[in-house]
Amino acid sequence: MKKVSLILIGLILFLVIAGCTPVAQQVMPPVEYKKAIDLHVKKNAYLNWEYGKEYAGKSMMFGPADPVGALLVTAIDNEAQRRNPDHYKFTYGKAQQAVFMTSLRDVLVEQNVFKNVSLTTASRKLNPNDVIITVKFRETRVANQNEFFDMTLNVDLFIKTINEPVFKRTYVIKSSPSGLFGRGFKDQQTDVSQQLLDRIISGLSQWHYKIN
Amino acid sequence: MKLKNFKYVVLIGFIFLMGCATQHNVELADSFWQSPNHKIAVATTKAPKPQIHQVGNQGLLDYAISSAVNSKLDTHLAQTDISWYRNMPQIFAERLQHKNILAKPYFQPINAKKENYLYIMGQTHSEKLLIIKLEALGAKRTYFSVIPKEAPQAYCEMIGELIDMRDNKVLWHHKASITEPVQGAWDQPPNYPNLDHALKLAINSAQHELLDSFFSGR
Predict the structure, then answer these.
(1) What is the ipTM of this complex?
(2) How far is B180 from chain A (nearest CA, A)?
(3) Cα(A152)–Cα(A55) distance, rounded to whole angstroms?
């Protein structure tokens, strides 16, 4: 009975302390694709990236239920956020999207999907041996810390080749259920990025099937 | 094991299992689009009253006090136009018909009960039901006790579900939960124009998210 009570108390203390600790935004690691891609196209691929709207989530201090304590905590929290806003905002923004695009390029290169793969930021003229793959992050949303930084990505994929209509797909990616204790911001980024990578690879296969 | 310890074990087990109780999102399988011989009815459930949703660490008295403070905003939100919601069956049906799938909109909002679903199946001679549920609409504000943590944000939450009524299998389930910050001042009674604009954006985003999720990859 004493042991079980101690475990319960420890669990509650852990949850309370976790709610008090500001969480720094963590850099997203590269995304991997461990399955074999059975797709090989003798064209040069140019990966183009467009970013859109970002909705940020916030880390939050644990708020007490009494008015005086709540007033103090709110004042401290607001001042801290005013002084260092980036420390309290969490987005699937340019940094994460850049890592994703680099990872996509690396996966396509490692698996010889195209003759050459490179990243491009400018619109380029299409040649017969070229494929332009545009990934547009139309809207990205990150929920607040109390909602475990749940993420939603609205992404458009465009694949352009000469003499073919533009192939378009739209993907809505939501972070996977993260259980009772949730997943941290870093893991949520990895989760949605992995899902998006899987969908884009699937989109490439659909495109190739359609044109052949 | 002693009875007292067993109670604690059950309690801990209950807490852990609570995380499993909600319906998770289900992606529509590619096989759905590969066999287009579907007969689908598209319907909506009855809309809730648009209001301000107070979240956070509040007791009952705190909730009552902050509700009283928010009464003007609540009254304004209750008048929010929801005609866009009544049009959603038509929008989904048209998109499905564009893909040569037989889809019929059912315009009478229903209560989310199995017998109502079966009634629609009978009326429309369908085998699958695409049901859109508006779960929450209005504004969301976080509180610590009676102290608001931040300005209200426009809020729209919708769920879309495709059910095969022959075996009650859920073929697609998606929850779109959108909060939209208000650009500029929010406290502009009696019409709250900035908040209304944010609410329109939230509704638009939620509609598009459901449509994009359903037709995702198509």
Answers:
(1) 0.79
(2) 8
(3) 10
